[in-house]
Every structure is written in C-alpha cells, then in structure tokens.
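Hey,
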Amino acid sequence: MAKDKFSAVWVSHSSISNFLECPRAYFLKNIYKDPKTGHKIKLMSAPLALGQAVHEVIESLSELKTSERFKESLIDKYERAWKKVTGKNGGFLNEDTEYKYKARGEAMIRRVMKNPGPVAELAVKINMELPYYWLSEEDNIILCGKIDWLKYNAETDSVEIIDFKTSKNEEEGESLQLPIYSLLVHNCQKRKVDGAWYWYLESNDSLTKKELPEVEDSAKKILKVAKQLKLARQMGIFKCPNGEKGCRACRPMEMIIKGEAELVGQDGYRADVYILDKPSKMEEEDSKIL
C-alpha cells in the first residue's frame, strides 16, 4: 500500500488512552462531529485549564536559548497564558474555584523558577509541528504526539524525555505515554534516547525517573492496540464497557450531545468547546486532593 497520510489512521497517546478506557468516549472525542456545526466537540474542565496554562509557559522555554529563558518573569508569562482559560473558557463555574486552580498553577511555576533543573539546560526541539511517523505502513497507521521536553546531553549527543505533570496523582505503571514518546523520539530525530522522567510539579522539586521498555517491544504493544482501534473505526463499533448506562469517560460527552452542556467557544482546531454546569467527578476528586 502506498503511503498516504490523509487516508491513514492517526493514533496518539491521548487517543489510544481514550480508546482503552472507553471506545464510546474515543468516538465522541476523536471522530464525532456535531451535525449542526460540522465541528468536533470538546469538554473543558478546570484540571485541563490548569495543565494547559502551566504547560504553555514551560514548554515555550524550549524555543529560547538557555541564556534567554528567564529574562522575562515566568509569572508574567503565566498571567498571559491564564487569560486564555479564565472564567467559563477554562470550565470555571465560580471565581473561588478559579482562584484555587490559578494559585496552584502559580505555585508550580514558582517551583520551576526556584528549581529549574533541566529547564535551564540545553534542549532539543524536533523540527515538526506535530511529530509523527509511520507505525505501520502495511496497516496504514501513523503514530503522532508532542513531547513536553527533550533534554540534550552534549557529552553523549543523546536526549532524555521529560514529561511535566500538573496533578498529584502519579501516572500508572501500565501507562503507554512514555513508550509512545520513546517511539516518537526514536523515529523523529537521530539522537539516542538515554532515559525518561516525570516531573510532578505539584509536589516535587526534582524529577522522577521512569524505566523505558525496549523500542521493539513498545512498537509491538502500541501497534496491537492501534490495530484494534483501526478495526473499530472500520466496523463503526464503539461500545462503552458499561453498556447504555455509560461510564465516567463517556457520560460527560453524552451530556453535550443531549444538550446538557454549555457552549463557550472554539479551540484552536475549531472544535466546539463545552462546559458542564457542575464539576465532573474528576474535578471533585482533584479538588479533594488539595
């Protein structure tokens, strides 16, 4: 089969995670389009807004030379980033909730300013707006995704993957995120991957090292799931494991379709962005962590 990226099935960490959690949620988040607008739908929430603002500030530093990264206050950058998610645009239903989330984000940014670690060191930027490669030409499947940070090790001409976390909840051991990022880095640039780390910005001044599986093992594991996802798309079957009652992943999206959510705008990809009139279970649990 000739390579055609327009007919290929594109998969990423987020889409694969959606599919594994609930095929119905995957469909609603990645395929479904509102018949009235022709746009995809997206549910905004306070935790997502927090992550978006913090990531925007930190990841922007990789575009700058090390000597330029801290010339402008990161707090000033954070204030600008927060303006994009303030109020209902960030899923905030009241000023008190927004204040708490914004303060959490500011504390994370101040942590980075005080303990910059790898953010102050040399970084590699992959020269692709969205890094991707052919996971399987035979199956017409492309793997894509953006990596938060690639630390450059000059002595070995190698890179280390760093992913910033804005929640106290630690990533599960079976997470496919770092294996997917490892595949992308391995195939989208020439340098060897020397390691991978999470930085839990909510609680830690330093990084948490994570072991990476062999590239070949990761590729087999990811391709197996990607084939299942592709088959579901071909057959048009996307059922929630809980049946018609739905689950925590698909129920909020179903509420959008039923007209039980409020439209607040569009994102950069022209998806219609909605919020719910009460916090999701994820937000309730997240707020209790505080």
